[in-house]
Amino acid sequence: MSAVALALAQMGHHVSGVDIRERQVLDRLRAAGVTVHIGHQRSHVIGCDAVTASTAIAPDLNELDEARKLGVTVLSRAGMLASICAQAKSLGVAGTHGKTTTTSMLMLMLVEAGMRPSFVIGGDVNDMGTGAQWTGGEWFVVEADESDGTHLELPLHGTILTNIDIDHLDHYGTIDGIEEAFDRYLSQIPGPKVVCADNARSAAVAARHDTVTYGMSESADVRAVNVRSDHGSFRFDVERDGMVLASVHLPLRGDHNVVNATGALAMAVELGVDPHIAADALGKFGGVARRFEIRGHDAGATFVDDYAHLPTEIDAVLRAARDSGDAWKRTVAVFQPNRYNRMAEMWQEYADAFEVADVVVLTDIYPSGTEPIPGVTGKLVVNAVLDAHPETSVVWLPRRDDLVDYLARHVRDGDVCISMGCGDIASLPDEVLSARRGAAE
Hints:
Blueprint: H1 2-10, E1 16-19, H2 24-31, E2 35-38, E3 50-53, H3 62-70, E4 73-76, H4 77-85, E5 89-94, H5 99-112, E6 118-125, E7 130-133, E8 139-143, H6 150-153, E9 158-161, H7 169-172, H8 175-187, E10 193-196, H9 200-206, E11 212-215, E12 222-229, E13 234-240, E14 243-250, H10 255-270, H11 275-283, E15 293-298, E16 301-306, H12 311-322, E17 330-335, H13 340-346, E18 359-362, H14 379-388, E19 394-396, H15 400-410, E20 415-420, H16 428-440
Parallel strand pairs: 1-2, 3-4, 5-8, 5-9, 6-8, 9-10, 10-11, 11-12, 16-20, 17-18, 17-20, 18-19
Antiparallel strand pairs: 6-7, 12-13, 13-14, 15-16
Helix pairs in contact: 5-10, 5-11, 8-9, 10-11, 15-16
C-alpha cells in the first residue's frame, strides 16, 4: 500500500493514509507529501474522492464504512493499481516465487537503457532506495500479485511469468485452480509473454500461448548456460538459438536468481533493449530488501534475513547459502510460519524444505491478519520435518525471547544464520546481534 501511495503522490494527487503504528516507511511517505494518520478515525475520509485499502483490512473498518456512507468511491488495492497501470504501457511480473526480484531487475534494465520506467514493486529496490516511483515515462513496471487475483485485473501490455506453485488455496481451492488463473492471465496480455520453462506448470501454460520461454532447461528459448558460482555471485552466458546474447556477472546467490535474471533479460530484449546494456544493469544490481540480505556479522557468524515463506523458496535460499562459495561451515535455518489458513492447508508441504540446513529452528505462526484455528500452530511444521527426516536437528521455540536467547548463545564462528518468513521475523537478526553484543560487553 505504501508503494501505491507513493506512486499516486508523485503523479500529483493529494494522498493521505492510515496505519496503526509508526514505521520507517511512513517517513518516506511524509517526505513525498503524503498525509499520514496513526490510528483509525472516520473523519480521515471526509473530502476524499476515492479510498483504497489492502485485502488485509476488514471491509467494515471505520474509514471504509464512512466512505460508503458518504458516497465516496471505494477501490480495492487491485482496482487502484489497475487505474495506475492504465496511465502507461504496463509490464507485469507474475508468478508464485521471484516476482519482486525479477520486477526489480527488469526495471533497472529499462533505467539503464534510458527508458525512464515508473514502477510499483513489493519490496524496496536497494539501488533506488524505494519500491515505487512515477516518472511520467512511457513504461510502467509492476509486480502482479496473484494472492487475491490482482494480476487478473491489471491492464497490461506484456508480462513475465516466473513459475506456478502451490499457495493461496483459500482463494483458489487447488493448484489446478491457480494454474487456470495464470492461463487466463496470459490470455489477456496482447504484447510479449515471457514464461519460465523450468517449472512444469508454467511450461505447460506457456505451450498454450504465444510465448518466449526462459530458464536453464534445454527446452527454453532463452537459456542461462555456462553457469558457475563465484564467491557469493554468479557468472553465466545468456543464449538464444545457440547464439550468446550477453555474458552476465550477477552479484547474487542462488540458481533461482540466475533464472530470474534470465527472464528479465529476455523481456528487456523483447522490448528492444540491447542485451549488453541489460547485462550491465544486472552486474550493478544491489538486490532487494529482505532477499538474502546480510544484516550483520559477529564473532565469525553471519546473519541473513530473507522473505522466503513457502517451501520452494526456503529450499532455494538454503541451497543458495550452501552453494555460494562463501565457505560457511554450518547453515542455521530459522523459520516463522505465516498465516493460520496457509499453514492449515500446507504444513505437510514443508517436510523437505530444510533438507540442506544443519540446524532448523522453528517458531510459532505469525497471523498476518488471519484468525487462529484450533490445533494449527508452528508445531505442525516441526512434525512434518521430523516425520520425513527424523535425523534432522530441529529446535522448537514458540516464544520470541527464547528464540533470541537460543540463537545468541548457539550460533558460532563459521555459521550463517538465515531467518525466513514474511512476518515480524524481519527484525530477528538485529535482536540477536544486539543480544550477542550485550552479552559480550
